[in-house]
Amino acid sequence: MPMQTLSFSLNAFHRNSLSTNQTHYFTTFIRSCFTAMNHRTSSEKATVDCFDPPEHVVGAWYSVPELRLRDHHFTVPLDYSQSRSQSPKISVFAREAVAVGKENQDMPYLLYLQGGPGFESPRPTEAGGWMTKACEEHRRGTGLSTPLTTSSMLQIKSAQELVDYLKYFRADNIVNDAEFIRKHLVPNAGPWKVLGQSFGGFCGVTYLSFAPQGLKEVYLTGGLPPIGDGCTAQAVYKACISSIITQNEKYYYRYPQDIEIIRDVVNHLHESKGGGVPLPSGGVLTPKGLQLLGLTGLGSSTGFERLHYLFERVWDPVIVPGSKKQISYYFLNAFEKWLSFDTNPLYALLHESIYCQGAASRWAAHQVRTEHENKLDAVKAAKEGRPVFLTGEMVFPWMFDEIHALKPFKEAANLLAEKTDWPPLYNKTTLNKNKVPVAAAVYYEDMFVNVNLAMETAAEIAGIRLWVTNEYMHSGLRDGAGHVLDHLMGLLNGKKPLF
């Protein structure tokens, strides 16, 4: 059956068939503040909210190779617990994409929920890969949806006010945005299909928990979250430590020459004035900061290669005899771009909160790292002649001292780490009684979403079909050129029956 796809941050796509590349994409971007901020006084809100923008504005069609695109702007509440007239408004942007010639066809929708938190979906430049089968969007706070950037967040003058604003940018409100858009787009407000990658899969399970009536089918790729009560962040990081170490060992097996190179870099940083070297943006690169390269270098399909080639250019050549050895500007600049905290600070600020329900994270990753410092202490490893292990998907409090773009948000980050009144993100009772068809890809060697924790969650979702594989890493949806999504669809459409 022809189908339209919608993806979240918010990115959405339309498609005419899930098994052809005649696809209708719909892309939306994370929530952006459209009018009053949450920290305004009542009188200020009344003044600002006197302008009530339309709920949905549709743009004209335009083109990229093999696709026709159309922009949508939705004005949604910042806080769905308030009435529309009382809540500040934010804008969620969505881009619709469809195969050329399919613009006027009535097709079902597939919503794509991007990974993150705090990252927008990539802009479509052509039809290809899994995007020929689904739509994508950028969630609230990213892309064109009132992006929460290092500059825009400075408009909020106090750390507590920023915390009070950021609390509306988790999975619960991402699902609320999705439901708002579904009711405006889908004929007769019918249900749609959802594809969730990584954190987008977490949002998909939140969707199954609180708004299953809006769902026709759900596909999850590397995105089965831990759903226990309280804050599960510590359990996540403890479970992932062994995978992080394994990925380090695999990397050094592939590139044994990098053992000495990285040790030399760590020693150079440690012996530099202040324990590090200045970064181009104004921050400082320290040995533990260097270890952050493992976040994307160790957990994706081409990460090893990218990491190795980055370290090929770590040192400046000695042009003048007797010049001091120094780390190249090329490497320092590439390091900052690799981490993306300057462009996507929401990831650092909200990362641990995605695991919290009624409890604080209290810098869980930092606590777990401390427990494993005998393996993760870079300086000690370098001095002892051991390989220096890089870290994985972890956010640490010292990053808000060392990374220039994050420095203004240090106090807010500490407040978020101590925040206890996070609302629930999952409902086990609803999941146990689930009636929505669900298929999930679980990556056996996933460094970001631990396979054992994923399997525990799968056991709580009634009727879920699982595909457990070590053929792909966490980035399988992107790397598989449509194979991963095809496989999941086959689990639900009868092509891969139960056996």
TrEMBL record:
Top-level lineage group: Eukaryota
Family to which this protein belongs: Belongs to the peptidase S33 family.
Keyword Zinc in annotation: no
One MF annotation (Gene Ontology) recorded for this entry: hydrolase activity
InterPro entries: AB_hydrolase_fold (IPR029058), Serine_prot/Carboxylest_S33 (IPR051601)
Protein name, as recorded: Uncharacterized protein
Keyword Hydrolase among record annotations: yes
Source organism (scientific name): Mikania micrantha (bitter vine)
Keywords: Hydrolase
